Amino acid sequence: MSSELRVDKIIPTTGVPTGGGGGIIQIVTGGSNTRLTVPTNTGQYYNSYVNATITPKFNTSKILIVGNGDVQCQADTTGSVKFARNVTNADGAVPTNGTLLGGSSLGIANFRFTAAMENIPLTVMHLDSPGTTSATKYTVVLARTSGSNNIYLPGNNNQNNFNLFLFEVSA
Asked: With 90 as the cut, is the pLDDT of residue 39 above it?
């Protein structure tokens, strides 16, 4: 005998938290081990090859974006990571449309090396409110913010993935 339970929502016995829900509705993953090299344009963000698309079930949902992997930087150079929403430019290009997420000119995460080229593990998160039920693409973007050397994401070409996780969170 099989059973099936269908509900519109589940409310905790202690009631809904102030400000709304917080349950996970769906999870989407993406990632790439194709390396993005950011050259000499200080402060200019470039689309990485790391992206994922989610179609929110509700226009009130929030999307928790989590990026995880490694970056690489040469000596005396600083890099910055952000996320972008609905960028349609090619991977490796400068985004000319869509929305950069993370606020000010500083990224969600910044890193600097003072020694020879090394890899650094990096986890970045951002909570977005896209306000739509249409397919929404998120991309990791990377900039060199100071110094004269290249930066890379992921750190090792065709070796380690840089992963992207999208969690639709009920509002």
From this structure: no
Q: What are phi and psi of 108, to 5 degrees?
A: -70, -35
Q: Are 68 and 44 in contact (CB under 8 A)?
A: no
What is the rounded distance in angstroms from the CA atom of residue 51 to the CA atom of residue 30?
6
> DSSP strand E in the chain: where?
24-32, 36-38, 46-54, 62-73, 77-85, 99-101, 109-113, 118-128, 136-146, 151-153, 162-169
Strand partners, 30: 164
- End-to-end Cα spacing for the chain: 36
Instruction: Kindly tell me the sign of the dihedral angle through the C-alpha atoms of 73, 155, 38, 42.
Output: negative
pLDDT tens by residue, 102-142: 766 556 677 766 667 778 888 999 999 999 999 999 999 99
DSSP 42: B
Euclidean distance between CA atoms 2 and 158, whole angstroms: 46
Radius of gyration (C-alpha) of the chain in whole angstroms: 18
Q: Is 136 exposed, middle or buried (0-12, 13-18, 19+ CB in 10 A)?
A: buried
Average pLDDT in the 69-75 region? 86
Between strands 118-128 and 62-73, the pairing is antiparallel
